[in-house]
Design goal:
The complex is a heterodimer of chains A (952) and B (112). Chain A is mainly α. Chain A is built from 39 helices and four strands. Chain B has one domain. In chain B, α1 runs antiparallel to α2 and α2 runs antiparallel to α3. The chains are: A mainly alpha (952), B mainly alpha (112).
Chain lengths: 952, 112
């Protein structure tokens, strides 16, 4: 578990720095978290250095092959150490760098977030888990680049980085999925052992290209290099940490990780080596012309990443060893140089080499440290960069797959080295030598000690490793390279002096050439200005993006013109096409082998009535009342169809829903316009008509295709277990309340939510109904016709009794909670309609909200009870009892659940209808003041008389 | 029989689609109700047409209709009602807020 905590600690603790207002506490809390994580990492050191790979595995989603698993290989350890070590230095440095006005807590939160994600990448054992962390680094990098969110360049840079690395990550995910598919596991341990299987697989090249796309975008390899210089809009600590030392190295980390699996093929060599070579040269060339210190360092970083990529492409054991060593060295000197550039910026107010000069008087310590950093960057002996660069040059001289054109690689390497020397000299001399600069935004002076601490430490590492490589870096690099190479690990001893050899000659040539280039830089600059006018990654990227956006806008304007009718038309057309094409293409006959059953005259007549009703609904839809009546015909015939085809439960449900729906529509029509204006043009009507007919034909064909095919049902299970398992003979009801009780629970929840939404929508909403109907006639004065009132009142107890009957028989005969609920709701609504809200509401002493809630609680409660009794959720039980007179009867726990269903249906339907009925304020008021008084009096006297009559 | 039922289903869908494509909220609601009927019927049809085979278990009956689509459709009918009710209220509220019952919330612009 301690192993998993290394990445999790910064990730989970990321929010902590945000909690403090003191800048010191912000930094300290971040430092403590990172320090603790570092401690946990160092605990793993003994095991790692003895060649073990500590593992921590927990199952996460086994069905997908995703495990929550971490490993500490030597290579992962090296990387994790870089992340945490440099991370801690950055925490200290940023405390002084980030200005008072900036939200420092937020900065450290992002930083820890990144740190945890990066640790996750280097320590993941599972490829899918690695992918998750990979994306997290893209996101945290986005947040950090855009830290100064008020600056447009920061936002653009962040966006560009996210698009490029996110797109690459997408490709890489596909590559990982393929790799996992080929190997049959996503665990690195399995994958690393499966080189033969992977290489022999036909999908090898696709997998390789996809994974390389991810690695190259992350590590800013050509042609994706342009995002990195623009990421320099980030605060300098971020550039030092993410965009030179750690995150951009995730790409080369992955390459190195995959060398044992994917490496060794010709395709690997060509793709990786050549990409590396081009990046190395191109970026080194670009770096020479950057006036911005951070821009120079950014291109230099891209170039060094290219160097590492090139080494990994070569893939020989020594090349991999050199790559690991250079990853370490580059992280040290480049992070340090970035921090120094930040100091220069911080103390002078500019990072422009053109404006800066002669700072060595004012900032001697900074100058000395920069000297070390630039020396390492250029590959001067006695600094660490020299050692790995010499190993690199030696490796390029080896034989390679390019055959007779193989000299390109050492030539390119030496040229790039020449450029590197030139830009290193330019950075050092341009800023610190020459006559002291004037008119700087701030008068230059040394920064506070704390700010100097981190770059000082890193430069010390550069020198110490440069002079005593075997002692300071040997074990770490050996462990790192050993983890990748395994038995192929070369027996190499790091030393400053390896005797006089070709690599040393090349190094010297590079140093001398670089000096010459620096002296001749003015000629080069002219040439470059001419070239750069024609080639610029950012402009290309931006024109590409704006082109895409324009095309997108055009498509949107075409499709999304604000007309819902148009959308629906498109949607239905597309559905129709998508539904028809597979049928047309597959050439299977539309109709299956099952013969149609014979037609009887009664059914035919009913079918014709339905068709006429449906068509009449359309024909009359401008006259809304009439069309509702037509619609109700259709609903009733559907109910009859359910009866005809052996579904009594459905028929009962349909007929009661039908009643409620029609009431609802009528009530709405009281407030909506009663007619629909003639709006659609003839063309549109024809067009819509054509689409409708097509849709109808498609639907009918689909129904026919299904009905004539043989079918296989899973219902035998329900039929067989309904009585012994659920204790009910009505299988439909038993499915609802028992087998699929959980579904029903969800459905009544939806019903309750719909009720609440309607209530909320109509809350405090008032609307006056028109005074007259659309023909100008006043509404009838007789609001509550007496006959209706007197029929509905005795009907209430009868209907309630009937619904109780329907409810109770539901488990064994057609009926149940849904139907009983609807019947109850209908009869209650009838009271409202007949006698008005003002009369009815006080007489029903319950709140529909409460009824609904009680129902849900009851249904949930039956489920929880079975849970409490150690049965699965919603398990039901039943028992038979015998009572005198009544005889044998059954009590099932599912009845309680059904009761819940009943209550929810009653509650929500009443909630909807009563609320809808009470929005016409006019109605309510007239009733409540005058009519109500008279009416209630009148009714009460009438009632008294009736009672008297009955008692007589 | 299958032909008739399929034809009924097709006609209901056709009428529903036509109404749903209208410009005012009320015909759209009518159309959706109609399509709701049709789709419930269609779901029910996937269990095939059976005559005189209710799903009540009894000793002297060996064949039954398919109860599963019936159970699904039963809840679908109720949920369908909830949806229609919601739409009705939404259209009422929209009319109250926007003073028009056009589906786009505004009168159609004359074609330019």
């Amino acid at each position: 578990m301690t192993l998993a905590l290394i990445p999790l600690l910064p990730l989970l603790g990321a929010f902590i720095p945000c909690l403090f207002h003191s800048r010191n506490l912000n930094a300290a809390s971040a430092g403590v978290i990172a320090g603790f994580s570092l401690l946990l990492l160092l605990l793993q050191a003994p095991a790692v250095f003895s060649g073990d790979i500590p593992l921590y595995t927990r199952s996460w989603i086994p069905a997908m092959g995703l495990t929550f698993a971490f490993r500490v290989s030597g290579f992962g350890f090296l990387f994790a150490l870089l992340v945490l070590g440099i991370g801690l230095l950055i925490v200290v440095y940023a405390r002084y760098y980030i200005a008072k006005e900036d939200p420092m807590g937020r900065f450290y939160t992002y930083l820890l977030f990144f740190m945890g994600s990066m640790l996750g990448i280097v320590l993941s054992e599972n490829l899918l888990l690695l992918m998750v962390f990979w994306e997290l680094t893209s996101i945290s990098s986005f947040l950090l680049i855009g830290f100064w969110r008020h600056r447009a360049d920061a936002r653009q840079g962040a966006f560009m980085a996210l698009v490029i690395t996110g797109g690459g990550g997408f490709a890489m995910l596909a590559g990982f999925l393929l790799l996992g598919h080929i190997v049959g596991s996503f665990e690195l341990t399995d994958i690393l052992a499966a080189k033969q299987i992977v290489h022999a697989h036909p999908l090898y090249s696709v997998t390789l290209i996809l994974i390389l796309a991810g690695a190259f975008t992350k590590s800013a390899q050509f042609p994706f290099q342009f995002w990195l210089p623009h990421a320099m809009a980030a605060p300098t600590p971020v550039s030092a940490f993410l965009h030179s030392a750690t995150m951009v190295k995730a790409g080369v980390f992955l390459l190195a990780l995959m060398v044992p699996v994917l490496g060794g093929s010709a395709l690997w060599f060509y793709l990786v080596t050549l990409t590396g070579l081009i990046t190395l040269m191109f970026a080194a060339y670009m770096a020479m012309f950057k006036d911005d210190l951070k821009g120079l360092l950014a291109y230099s970083t891209v170039s060094h990443l290219g160097l590492i990529t090139l080494l990994l492409g070569l893939g020989t054991p020594m090349a991999v060893f050199a790559a690991v060593f250079h990853i370490f060295n580059h992280a040290a000197f480049k992070a340090g140089l970035f921090m120094l550039a930040g100091i220069i910026d911080h103390e002078t107010g500019t990072r422009d080499i053109q404006r800066l000069s002669g700072l060595k008087k004012a900032m001697p310590v900074t100058a000395a440290l920069t000297l070390i950093g630039c020396g390492a960057m250029a590959g001067v002996p006695l600094f660490n960069g020299f050692l790995s660069k010499e190993m690199f040059l030696a490796e390029t001289l080896g034989p390679n797959l390019l055959g007779s054109a193989g000299w390109i690689i050492p030539l390119g390497a030496v040229l790039a080295a020449v450029f590197a020397v030139a830009y290193s000299i330019r950075m050092l001399l341009g800023v610190f030598w020459g006559k002291p600069a004037e008119n700087l935004p701030r008068s230059p002076h040394e920064p506070p000690m704390g700010m100097m601490l981190s770059p000082g430490f890193l430069m010390a590492v550069c020198v110490l490793v440069g002079i005593f490589p075997a002692f300071f870096a040997g074990p770490l690099v050996n462990a790192g390279a050993g983890a990748i190479l395994g038995p192929d690990m070369p027996a190499y001893h790091m030393a400053v002096w390896h005797g006089f050899n070709m690599a040393l000659v090349l190094s010297m040539v590079a140093l001398a050439g670089g000096a010459v280039f620096y002296l001749q830089r003015h000629r080069l600059f002219d040439l470059h200005v001419w070239c750069s006018r024609h080639l610029d990654g950012k402009t290309l990227f931006e024109s590409l993006v704006s082109g895409l956006i324009q095309a997108g806008n055009r498509a949107i304007r075409f499709l999304e013109n604000g007309s819902l009718q148009r959308y629906l038309f498109v949607l239905i057309s597309v559905t129709l096409v998508l539904g028809t094409v597979p049928f047309a293409v597959s050439r299977t006959p539309l109709l299956g082998p099952v013969a149609a059953t014979p037609l009887d005259p009664v059914t035919l007549v009913m079918g014709l009535i339905l068709i006429i009703g449906a068509v009449a609904t359309v024909k009359t839809h401008r006259n809304r009342i009439l069309s509702i009546i037509m619609l109700s015909t259709v609903g009733l015939v559907v109910a009859l169809a359910f009866t005809r085809f052996s579904a009594p439960d459905l028929a009962l449900t349909q007929i009661s829903v039908e009643v409620v729906t029609i009431i609802l529509l009528m009530m709405a029509l009281h407030l909506l316009p009663t007619t629909t204006p003639m709006e659609s043009s003839k063309t549109r009507q024809r067009r819509d008509g054509l689409l409708s007919v097509l849709a109808g034909c498609g639907a009918a064909a689909l129904a026919m295709a299904i009905l004539t095919r043989p079918y296989d049902t899973i219902s035998d299970f329900f039929l067989a277990h309904s009585v012994p398992g659920g204790g009910g003979t009505n299988v439909v009801n038993v499915i609802l309340v028992d087998f699929r009780g959980f579904d029903t629970l969800g459905e009544i929840t939806v019903l309750a939510i719909a009720g609440l939404i309607i209530y909320a929508l109509l809350h405090k909403f008032e609307r006056k109904a028109p005074e007259t109907d659309d023909m100008g006639l006043p509404w009838t004065q007789d609001r509550f016709p007496m006959i209706l009132v007197y029929i509905t009142r005795p009907l209430l107890p009868l209907a309630l009794l009937f619904s109780a009957y329907i409810f109770l028989r539901g488990h064994n005969d057609p009926g149940g909670g849904f139907i009983a609920g609807l019947i109850t709701a209908t009869v209650l609504t009838l009271q409202y309609i007949a006698s008005g809200i003002v009369w009815t509401r006080p007489r029903f002493h319950f709140d529909n909200h409460v009824i609904m809630a009680l129902g849900l609680i009851l249904a949930l409660g039956t489920g929880l009870t079975s849970w409490a009794l150690n049965y699965p959720f919603l398990t039901s039980t039943y028992e038979y009892f015998t009572l005198p007179l009544i005889g044998k009867f059954e009590i099932a726990s599912a009845m309680a659940f059904d009761m819940g269903v009943y209550l929810v249906v009653v509650g929500s339907v009443m909630l909807m209808l009563v609320k809808l009925g009470s929005i016409n304020s006019e109605d309510a008021r007239t009733v409540s003041i005058s009519a109500h008084m008279d009416e209630t009096l009148e009714i009460e006297t009438l009632e008294d008389k009736t009672i008297e009559k009955e008692t007589h | 029989m299958e032909w008739l039922v399929s034809a009924c289903f097709g006609v209901m869908i056709a009428c529903g689609v036509y109404l749903v494509l209208r410009a005012r909220t009320f015909p759209v609601i009518l159309g959706l109700t109609l399509m709701g009927y049709a789709i419930n019927l269609f779901l029910f049809l996937t269990g095939r047409l059976h005559t005189n085979l209710p799903d009540i278990i009894s000793a002297n009956q060996t064949r039954y209709a398919d109860p599963l689509p019936q159970a699904l459709v039963l809840t679908a009918i109720v949920i369908g009602f909830a949806m229609i009710a919601f739409l009705v209220v939404l259209s009422l509220r929209a009319l109250g807020e926007l003073d028009t019952d056009h589906v786009d919330g505004q009168q159609e612009k004359p074609p330019a």
